Amino acid sequence: xxxxxxxxxxxxxxxxxxxxxxxxxxxxxxxxxxxxxxxxxxxxxxxxxxxxxxxxxxxxxxxxxxxxxxxxxxxxxxxxxxxxxxxxxxxxxxxxxxxxxxxxxxxxxxxxxxxxxxxxxxxxxxxxxxxxxxxxxxxxxxxxxxxxxxxxxxxxxxxxx
Length: 161
What we know:
The protein is an alpha/beta fold. The protein is built from five helices and seven strands, in the order βαβαββααβββα.
């Protein structure tokens, strides 16, 4: 398991961090996002979509649970804030998408721990007290594929703390 912490000084830096991640993603990748309401998970997801060259506006799927965005590699954006249990994902067909050929970006992913693949990338976003725009972005790679992805982000960002 590999961990690394990045600092974002503004919403635009959080978005650009997402772009960097998105450029490195491959079919089947699973990105697990955690952070309190308003931390920047959806903004980061918008950046990931841009990095994946998805030309559709990304919005939070809070009420639908999953939005699908077509592209060279499709992106499945899950928002599990309102999900009560893993069985709710079965009702949406989400498990099939999670193990499909697209990239899955999952907000509130800890609600799905029992269904997540063993290899995945966790990204935790935390506001920095006293600075409304600053965020700590902690990435945790579980598996060789994601360790390589984090190394690629570190190389591209050059700003890891």
